[in-house]
């Protein structure tokens, strides 16, 4: 504390040393996942383009599963729990209620990750019978070892307990501050978690009732359309689970880093409420091409999806306006001349700004994906990874990395090892992704498939409208290489910071919004109301489609042979269990 | 940090985000142009991809 008093501005570490440790651990877990994910990313890039094939094509799905799971589950969600713990503790200005509880949920998340990772990496070793080559979507009939589903379940339980931790802090704070508005950052965290709890209903049913028993051999088949639909019930909100921490940083940290203040606190609350309401009843937009779901249901998902553009556009406005405010306070003038007055030499700013720019581009390809008919053109092609490397792979990932440059010193009382390297790193990510994602989009338009080890066929050639396949491959490889380099620079910069001596004066207070919470209608803070409406929308969007899927295919049929079959034991149990449950459920349905 | 180099304090009433509006309009214009372009490339230029 003494060093903090000298400089006048205590850091998060000075104020909350125990919580800072949890946050650092969560971020380290996240960055380890990022490093491994990047490694698998470059391996598959080189493999697909036939530049270098270190593994046999038979291992491609093992690599791709590792890449997908490490990036979009471990990297993003560990970062989320770290940043949310920081945000709640900081904005309520109180320590967590019980630090042992906090470590418990973190420990569960680590345990779950390790279990799933063992199952995935087992796919490389032929002599053992463990594998999970199911990609991050684990569609049946692809089957994983029970360790994979079990690990996923434990990881999810960890995140639920984390949410409970934050609700508990808020509840305790509320007792001491009756009648006060929920601080903005805590509000964002709580809304995110409400969305997460609703979304989790889908994945929990899919894993606990169907996939896990199926991989244990307790039931011998599942209804693939049902588990897929339940997956996307969760899968689309997950997209917002990645984005909402990035939004939290754009709304609360980026204005500060730009030298200004958030334009509007009420608008930020409205945006988060809209995400809670709309992010679940849209999952079917990932299934436009699935047979067995009527077009009418797909059309409802389409409509909800288009509404979902609204909060993103509101965000674009509020966030850019906050940057403009900063630029004008720094002396910027003119209609667009203020752009030059922004702190472009600061890696935290530049990284987040470039991330936002990429998100705008991703918005366009997202609108193509969301269209019911245009989607047919791009479905399952490389266009789709092209799209989400802009959104989760840059808007989210680059924001996380850039924000780390701002936050890390306050968690460690040590500066970042090299700011010039940090600046180069964020620019490198932007350039690398521009190349890689552009190549993926173009390749997708001419029909080159995703999730394919050898997208070259005998007696058939893809015909690009301009350029050549070789040029596209080159772009993909150069882009992927720059990205991998960027990831390595990011992590090494942090590792090198460890050896620096501690200093004081690194604290960075966050200024209040221009238009503060008192301008926001009270009803925005009514969490119960929004949760109830969100649930009603989910029921409206999903009851009929799910009922018709079960009605046509049966709860556990028509199945299809699992590939590969994981475990034989329990098949005796199966004979008793399946008829019992199906009888019970169909009786209950009538 | 370079973020702190504030020259003038501007409060809510003095601040009019004109530049932001300009940027958003530019973005909209790009979206519209790309939509129109897509229509020509994908629907008028090709045969039907999916029938029925
Ligand atoms: C080092 C940087 C990266 C490289 C070189 C890279 C490369 C690739 C490539 C080439 C594919 C397509 C493979 C195929 O469909 O056959 C892919 C898929 C994917 N990437 Fe990345 N990527 C990188 C970073 C990221 C990041 C930061 C994220 C998310 C945070 C991410 C998430 C994904 C996901 C979810 C898939 C789809 C996996 C699947 O189809 O199951 N990637 N990546
Ligand atoms: Cu979606």
TrEMBL record, chain A:
GO terms for molecular function: cytochrome-c oxidase activity; heme binding. The chain crosses the membrane at residues 25-43, 63-89, 101-125, 145-167, 187-211, 231-254, 266-284, 299-323, 344-368, 388-408, 420-448, 474-496, 529-550. Residues 27-524 form the Cytochrome oxidase subunit I profile domain. One of its GO terms (biological process) is aerobic respiration. GO terms for cellular component: membrane. Its main location: membrane. Keywords: Electron transport, Heme, Iron, Membrane, Metal-binding, Respiratory chain, Transmembrane, Transmembrane helix, Transport. This is B(O/a)3-type cytochrome-c oxidase subunit 1. Belongs to the heme-copper respiratory oxidase family. It is a multi-pass membrane protein.
TrEMBL record, chain B:
It comes from the Archaea. The chain crosses the membrane at residues 20-41. Keywords: Membrane, Transmembrane, Transmembrane helix. This is Cytochrome oxidase. It comes from Natronocalculus amylovorans. The lineage of its organism: Archaea, Methanobacteriati, Methanobacteriota, Stenosarchaea group, Halobacteria.
């Amino acid at each position: 504390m003494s060093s903090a008093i000298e400089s006048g501005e205590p850091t998060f570490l000075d104020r909350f040393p125990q919580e800072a440790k949890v946050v650092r651990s969560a971020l380290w877990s996240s960055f380890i996942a990022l490093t491994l994910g990047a490694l698998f990313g470059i391996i598959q890039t080189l493999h697909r383009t036939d530049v270098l094939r270190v593994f046999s094509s038979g291992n491609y799905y093992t690599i791709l599963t590792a890449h997908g799971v490490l990036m979009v589950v471990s990297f993003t969600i560990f970062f989320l729990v770290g940043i949310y713990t920081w945000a709640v503790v900081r904005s309520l200005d109180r320590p967590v209620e019980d630090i042992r509880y906090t470590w418990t949920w973190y420990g569960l998340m680590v345990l779950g990750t390790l279990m799933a990772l063992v199952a995935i990496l087992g796919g490389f070793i032929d002599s053992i019978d463990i594998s999970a080559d199911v990609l991050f979507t684990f569609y049946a009939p692809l089957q994983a070892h029970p360790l994979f589903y079990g690990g996923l379940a434990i990881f999810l339980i960890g995140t639920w307990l984390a949410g409970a931790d934050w609700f508990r802090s808020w509840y305790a704070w509320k007792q001491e501050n009756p009648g006060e508005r929920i601080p903005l950052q805590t509000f964002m965290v709580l809304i995110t978690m409400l969305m997460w709890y609703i979304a989790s209903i889908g994945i929990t049913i899919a894993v606990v009732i169907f996939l896990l028993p199926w991989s244990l051999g307790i039931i011998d088949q599942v209804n693939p359309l049902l588990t897929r639909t339940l997956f996307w019930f969760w899968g689309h909100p997950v997209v917002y689970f990645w984005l909402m921490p990035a939004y939290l940083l754009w709304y609360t940290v980026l204005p500060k880093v730009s030298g200004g203040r958030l334009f509007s606190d009420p608008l930020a609350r409205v945006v988060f409420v809209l995400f809670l309401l709309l992010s679940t009843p849209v999952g079917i937009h990932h299934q436009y091409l699935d047979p067995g779901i009527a077009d009418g249901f797909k059309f409802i998902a389409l409509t909800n999806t288009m509404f979902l553009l609204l909060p993103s556009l509101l965000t674009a406005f509020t966030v850019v306006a906050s940057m403009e405010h900063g630029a004008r306070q720094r002396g910027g003038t003119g209609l667009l001349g203020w752009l030059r007055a922004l702190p472009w030499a600061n890696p935290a700013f530049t990284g987040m700004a470039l991330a936002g720019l990429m998100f705008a581009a991703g918005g366009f390809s997202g609108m193509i994906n969301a269209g019911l008919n245009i989607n047919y053109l791009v479905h399952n092609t490389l266009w789709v990874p092209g799209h989400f490397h802009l959104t989760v792979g840059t808007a989210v990932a680059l924001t996380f990395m850039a924000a780390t440059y701002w936050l890390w010193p306050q968690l460690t009382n040590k500066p970042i090892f090299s700011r010039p390297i940090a600046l180069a790193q964020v620019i490198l990510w932007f350039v690398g992704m521009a190349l890689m994602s552009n190549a993926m989009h173009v390749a997708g338009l001419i029909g080159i498939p995703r999730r394919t080890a050898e997208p070259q066929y005998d007696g058939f050639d893809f015909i690009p409208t301009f350029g050549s396949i070789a040029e596209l491959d080159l772009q993909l490889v150069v882009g992927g290489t720059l990205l991998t380099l960027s990831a390595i620079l990011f992590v090494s910069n942090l590792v090198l910071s460890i050896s620096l001596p501690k200093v004081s004066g690194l604290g960075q207070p966050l200024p209040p919004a221009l238009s503060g919470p008192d301008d926001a209608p009270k009803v925005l803070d009514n969490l119960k109301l929004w949760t109830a409406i969100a649930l009603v929308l989910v029921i409206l969007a999903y009851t009929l489609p799910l009922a018709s899927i079960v009605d046509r295919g049966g709860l556990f049929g028509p199945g299809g042979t699992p590939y590969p079959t994981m475990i034989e034991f329990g098949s005796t149990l199966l004979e008793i269990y399946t008829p019992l449950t199906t009888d019970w459920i169909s009786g209950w349905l009538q | 940090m370079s973020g702190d180099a504030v020259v003038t304090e501007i409060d809510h009433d003095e601040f009019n985000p004109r530049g932001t509006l300009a940027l958003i309009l530019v973005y909209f214009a790009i979206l519209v142009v790309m939509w129109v372009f897509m229509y020509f490339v994908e629907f008028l230029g090709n045969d039907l991809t999916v029938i029925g």
